[in-house]
Amino acid sequence: MNKPILPLVREVFALGLIGLFFYLFLFVDFHDISFNVPSELLTVNTMFLSILLEAIPFILLGVFISALIQTFVSEDFIKRVLPKNAIVALLPAALLGAIFPICECAIVPIVRRLMKKGMPLHLGVVFLVGAPILNPVVFASTFYAFGTEQHIAYARMGLAFILSIVIGFIIYLVFKNKDQLKIKQEIIVNHSHGSESVGKLKSTLYHASDEFFEMGKFLILGAFISSLFQTFLDRTLLTEIGSNDILSPAIMMAFGYILSLCSEADAFVAASFSGSFTTGSLLAFLVYGPMLDLKNTIMLFAFFKAKFVAAFIVIVTVVVYLSILVYQQFFL
């Protein structure tokens, strides 16, 4: 008898905490509080809130798209639209990423849902790494941010498209499309408000609500860890080695991973480094960060098997780094 009540209590409590957060953020002036807080902690707080507030709208977008997929897209439909040949299917999977304006904050729940609906693992990975970059919003922001160096925008799109296919192909060779999702019981199954009784619209809202609270805790943890790195990382060390063609791409990849910026905004941060870092290292930052950062790493470990996530991290890191070295050698 208590089982149906517990999810409701949990959701009401979570909504109350969110309401309290926004009330404190909007209406309470913490400058009037008399106790002294170390400046580093204030910086952590500012960074944490900025990352969280930047990411929440995209998480909401992601969970709603995920819920729509759950409600309206059948397993048979996915099997019909995808090419039967696993290798041939890599190209349309990469092109699919160019349709949706989704950043890396929102892509994990969408890919997870598509895989549950029957999308093969390697195609889900193509979408996972490609969609946050291959969309019109990211191209426009990169094109505008770099002004006279607009070739960087085209290079970013080209590298992301090619590398998403390469990474998907390697994942296919390594895992042979074995299921790598963690087995998790769907909370929505136990709700008394199933889709048959309340209709598809309410079912979509219930799915989105469940997924938002499930994803939200990992977003908060990732944002907090990222804010600690941003506050205490010595950035002067980065600029000292920014002109090295071998080291600077690796440094900027690490920087992109730690900062955990949304792909719609990271081009403006990269442009601020253009005087200190090589073009290749800036591209490394712009390609690697949206594919893999602290926030989505924590989400990946939460919903995928650890062995797969570890292999995914290594594959993405090695492929991006080597591709940047090749690009520097032949195109710069």
Automatic annotation (TrEMBL):
It is found in: Cell membrane. It is a multi-pass membrane protein. Signal peptide: none annotated. InterPro entries: DUF318, UPF0718. Its main location: membrane. It holds the Pfam family ArsP_1. Coiled coil: none annotated. The chain crosses the membrane at residues 12-30, 42-69, 89-111, 123-146, 152-175, 212-229, 241-260, 267-288, 308-327. GO terms for cellular component: plasma membrane. Belongs to the UPF0718 family. This is Permease.
